[in-house]
Amino acid sequence: MKKIFALLILLCINENPGFAHGVGFREISMKAVALEFFYSTGEKMSYCDAKVFSPNDSKFAVQSGRTDEQGRFSFIPDTEGEWKIIVNDAQGHQCEAKIKISEDKIVESNEISFENSEIFFRALLGVSLIFNFALLIKIKKYAYK
């Protein structure tokens, strides 16, 4: 009985218990892919849901998270091929980026620019304003008859 009691005391005062495990971290050097997501107005897609799909599995995301305040999101690809990143703001806007990773981890992206579409939207807005102004004048003519 004294031996069992002594063994229990030794287990309790041991600095490195055999029944527990700890956690830790270390800094590693790996080439990450960082993307910035934005609306056609130039506003950043801040704090939006982001999902990363590997070339090996296009149905289940290998990573998910959120963009930061500046609309940035990054991940570390572990295989070559075309990676797909989908960012969704839960308000009807979604951006899908496809990034090609080659054997030596060189990134080729398909950057999307909204410069031309911004001109289109401004022109559309101008036509809409002219149409609405003409409609307002026509409605006033019929209202005062």
What can you see in these coordinates?
This protein is α+β, with helices and mostly antiparallel strands and 145 residues long. The chain has a domain at 30-125: Immunoglobulin-like (Sandwich). It contains two helices and seven strands; from the N terminus they run αβββββββα. It has helices at residues 2-13, 115-143, and strands at residues 33-36, 49-53, 63-66, 72-75, 81-88, 94-101, 107-109. Strands 3-2-5-6-7 form a five-stranded antiparallel sheet, with no helix packed on it. β6 (94-101) and β7 (107-109) form a beta hairpin. The longest helix has 29 residues, at 115-143.
SSE arrangement:
Layout: H1 2-13, E1 33-36, E2 49-53, E3 63-66, E4 72-75, E5 81-88, E6 94-101, E7 107-109, H2 115-143
Antiparallel strand pairs: 1-4, 2-3, 2-5, 5-6, 6-7
Give a summary of the structure in a few sentences.
This protein has 2 helices and 7 strands. It is α+β, with helices and mostly antiparallel strands.
Task: Summarize this structure as a short list of keywords or feature phrases.
25% strand; five-stranded antiparallel beta sheet; two-stranded antiparallel sheet; elongated; alpha+beta; Immunoglobulin-like; 145 residues; 2 helices
CATH topology of the domain at 30-125: Immunoglobulin-like
Q: What's the tally of helices?
A: 2
Radius of gyration: 29 Å
Helix and strand sequence = HEEEEEEEH
The largest sheet, given as strand count, sense and whether it forms a barrel, is: 5 strands, antiparallel
Mean pLDDT: 80
Shape label:
elongated
Q: What is the total tally of β strands?
A: 7
By CATH reckoning, the class of the domain at 30-125 would read Mainly Beta
What is the CA–CA distance across the termini?
A: 111 Å
Percent range for helical residues?
25-40%
CATH superfamily of the domain at 30-125: Immunoglobulins
What is the CATH architecture term of the domain at 30-125? Sandwich
Residue runs with pLDDT of under 50 for 5 or more positions: none
Percent strand: 15-25%
Structural class: alpha+beta
Strand order, largest beta sheet: 3-2-5-6-7
